[in-house]
Amino acid sequence: MEQYNMHEAKTHLSALVDKAVDGKPFIIAKSGKPQVIVYSFQAFKEPKKRVGFLPDLEIPEDFDTMMSDEIAALFAGDAA
Questions:
Q1: How does pLDDT run across 54-72, given as a tens digit for each residue?
Q2: Residues 21-48: pLDDT tens digits?
Q3: Is 78 helix (H, G, I), strand (E, B) or coil?
């Protein structure tokens, strides 16, 4: 990632913003120390939700309670 000092960033702000919009974020530094990272606003859009990535998966009706007796026995120390 490219780094620009504060004075250079102020002088070339328009061109640097164009770079960020094109997907090339950059760092603005002050006295050689990084201060901020500039990203395009598009980089922060909500990710698309994945729907149907396991289309053949069937969840049993008793999913929330299945094996509850076995799990309770394990917690009670009655494991066989």
A1: 777 788 888 888 889 988 9
A2: 998 999 999 999 999 999 888 766 766 6
A3: coil
Q: Can you give the pTM of this predicted structure?
A: 0.53
Report which residue type is found at 39. Y
In 3D space, the residue among 25, 44, 43 whose CA is nearest the CA of residue 9 turns out to be 25
Q: How far apart are CA 70 and CA 62, in angstroms?
A: 14
Q: What is the spatial order of strands in the sheet that 33-38 belongs to?
A: 2-5, 26-30, 33-38
Q: What is the DSSP letter of 45?
A: S
Write out the two tokens for 11: 């002088």
Q: Which domains does the chain have, with CATH numbers?
A: 2-44 (3.40.1620.10)
